[in-house]
Write a structure and sequence with these properties.
30% of the residues lie in helices and 26% in strands. The strands form 5 sheets. Strands 1, 4, 5, 6, 7, 10, 11 and 12 form an 8-stranded mixed β-sheet that branches. Strands 16-13-19-17-18 form a 5-stranded mixed β-sheet. Strands 2-3 form a two-stranded antiparallel sheet. The chain has 13 helices and 19 strands. The N terminus is likely disordered. The chain folds into 2 domains: 242 residues, Alpha-Beta Complex (Spore Coat Polysaccharide Biosynthesis Protein SpsA, Chain A), CATH 3.90.550; 161 residues, 2-C-methyl-D-erythritol 2,4-cyclodiphosphate synthase (60s Ribosomal Protein L30, Chain: A, 2-Layer Sandwich).
Length: 421
């Protein structure tokens, strides 16, 4: 299989969340800091949300403690990961930060190669920095595209710094703070360079390396700096979590929840028999449907609900019935397109709900198949999918058995819109 640089337009992400955080002592919880809750979400979830909301985010590799992966994810973390589907892949941590980063890089390389792609750029981030501004991500990627090999965000040191004297630790001297910088993550690299540097570092005492830029520099890379951001504060101690809380308040959240509704109807064809397609499942019926595509009212309504939440039009905008290309087309491709549109907008789907309206056929016997098919099409957990059915009590065109209808609702988490003032 040939490997192409198809992923070069994106910045792949590795989130390190495998440490035990020995300096973090929280009287309320014995969980490592990356699993601590901040505004009812773990620090891991905050990091994932920040990255996924950025349009140039590629594949995300989340590095977790090995025992959590082998023994099964805690239900809260599993729920937090569900909206991202295959966008997030897991990798086991190692016995040091460097070993965890190397495991993440290997997992990224394996995933991309299995999809016939290659990772051009990668950012490595500590989950203990849950608030990642898009401006920093864009600056990192821009520096790489302009030829940088290793790019790190830094901030100036504002406090006076004193260093203990080697000969007498009870005395000290002032260091010129204008020459000092505070280093943050995410740190971004040419993927091939940082992978090779980590492979070489694995044969040395990698414990001496406190971040990935040190490893890259030790093996010949030139480090480029960009302006960091105070939002990228690292949580090291329990009091840092308290201090971070107002910075992550709901009012400052960069995501918003939007809902959209959809409706579709198709007439039964008295001249041709079924089966008919409903929510991606072939359903037995004595009559077919009059439709340009396969006439799947469930999938069509779901598409319109998603497009409505995105405010991008309706299904006819993207798949016009006047285009012969879509004659008898399977509607699962329409829904996949809508799901991809959400990801491209930097968001994810929270919930999809569809109600089928007809006297016949009966939907109940097919409901579980429909849920399974929607899960396959969207990549969502069945706990984020709902299929219901109702009749119109003999009233109207559905009551007379002349056709079938569906209405749907979609709830999405999307980057907040900045209103013009």
């Amino acid at each position: 299989m040939s490997v192409s640089p198809a992923a070069s337009a994106k910045l792949d992400i590795i989130i390190l969340a495998a440490g035990m955080a020995t300096r973090f002592q929280n009287d309320r919880s014995d969980l490592p800091k990356q699993f601590q809750l901040l505004h009812r979400k773990s620090l891991i979830a905050h990091s994932l949300e920040s990255f996924a909301a950025w349009p140039d985010c590629g594949q995300i590799i989340l590095v977790l403690p090995p025992d959590i992966i082998t023994d099964g994810l805690p239900i809260d973390l599993r729920e937090e990961l569900t909206p991202y589907g295959d966008k997030v892949r897991l990798a086991p941590g190692g016995n040091s930060r460097a070993a965890s980063a190397l495991n993440g890089l290997k997992a990224l390389q394996e995933f991309q190669h299995s999809h016939g792609q290659d990772s051009a750029f990668v950012a490595i981030h500590d989950a203990a920095r849950p608030n990642i501004p898009k401006s920093v991500l864009s600056a990192l990627k821009s520096a790489l595209e302009q030829g940088g090999q290793a790019v790190i965000p830094v901030l100036p040191v504002s406090d006076t710094i004193r260093q203990k004297n080697v000969s007498d630790a009870s005395t000290s001297h002032v260091i010129d703070r204008d020459r000092l910088m505070r280093v943050q993550t995410p740190q971004a690299f040419k993927t091939s360079l940082i992978l090779e540097a980590h492979l070489q570092a694995a044969h040395t005492d990698a414990q001496n390396f406190t971040d990935d830029a040190m490893i890259a520099e030790a093996f010949g890379a030139k480090i480029v700096t960009i302006a960091g951001h105070e939002c990228l504060t690292k949580i090291t101690y329990a009091e840092d979590l308290t201090a971070m809380s107002p910075k992550m308040s709901p009012e400052m959240n960069l995501m918003e929840t939007r809902t959209g509704s959809g409706f579709d109807v198709h007439k039964f064809d008295t001249d041709s028999p079924g089966p008919i397609m409903i929510c991606g499942v072939e359903v037995a019926h004595d009559r077919g449907l009059l439709a340009h595509s396969d006439g799947d009212v469930g999938l069509h309504a779901l598409c319109d609900a998603i497009f409505g939440a995105l405010a991008t039009g309706d299904i006819g905008t993207f798949f016009p019935p006047s285009d012969p290309k879509w004659k008898d087309a399977a509607s699962d491709q329409f829904l996949r397109f809508a799901v991809d549109a959400v990801q491209q907008a930097g968001g994810h789907i929270l919930h999809l709900d569809v109600t089928i309206i007809c006297e016949r056929p009966k939907i109940g016997p097919y409901r579980e198949q429909m849920l399974a098919r929607l899960k396959d099409i969207t990549g969502l957990s069945t706990r984020r999918l709902s299929v219901k059915a109702t009749t119109s009590e003999g009233l109207g065109f559905t009551g007379r058995g002349e056709g079938i209808a569906a209405m749907a609702q979609a709830s999405l988490s999307l980057p907040a819109i900045e209103e013009a003032h």
